Amino acid sequence: WVPVETPEDLVGPLFFIFNSEPLSCLFCSEKDHSIGVRPLLDKQLPTCEPDEVSFVFVGSRIAGGSDTISLKTFNGKYLASDKFGAITAEREAIGPQEEWRPIIKNDGIALQNAYDKFLSVDEIADGGYKLRADVETIGFCETWHVKCQARFRKKLKSTKKESKPISEFEIEQMYVLLKKYQTWGGGRIKTTKDDISELRKAKKEGNFSEALLDRREKVKADRYCK
């Protein structure tokens, strides 16, 4: 189990730790399926791991909601919050109350519900903890340390795209335009330095497609046209 570092890590098995004394975690009761906070045997944040299935929640992206997730318990129900901040896990389908928006901060992660309130740990009189989701700001009690399984962590993909020579791009584009209707030099297109320079200029000025059409007119060799 490794610390969550990016929103992409919040997909798959998750372990939510609250930095109490001793450490505790979010869990779903195996008896009545209620949601609460339970102390952990391992008191060290870097090494603690879930030792019960009830400590693990499965995160999934909400379809159509790019920045929201759902959290499923071990028994297939979803973590939910109503407008009063009550926390339950009773439904097998996802609605607005089962949606959570993770807010990643330097010291942990906060979970915001559909009513713009945050999941919070409230200490009660007997020394225990109670969950609520009616807090409007993020503080210590709203901050969770979240771990995911290393094998589920998605590797960041490079956003850098390979750049092709403009002459190659021209060939690809013209082939699409001409292959059904034209014959053009036996499938060969010759581009001169001047042609490439003109296309570069057109791309920079925002009329690259028009320039490609002009090139098509220059190189096409329809057998019915003379």
TrEMBL record:
Q: Which family does it belong to?
A: Belongs to the FRG1 family.
Q: Which GO terms describe its molecular function?
A: actin filament binding
Source organism phylogeny: Eukaryota, Fungi, Fungi incertae sedis, Mucoromycota, Glomeromycotina
Pfam family membership, one:
FRG1
> CDD domains from the xrefs?
beta-trefoil_FSCN_fungal_FRG1-like
How is this protein annotated for GO cellular component? Answer: catalytic step 2 spliceosome; nucleolus
Give the protein name, as stated in the record.
FRG1-like family-domain-containing protein
Q: Which UniProt keywords apply?
A: Nucleus
Please indicate which superkingdom the organism of origin belongs to: Eukaryota
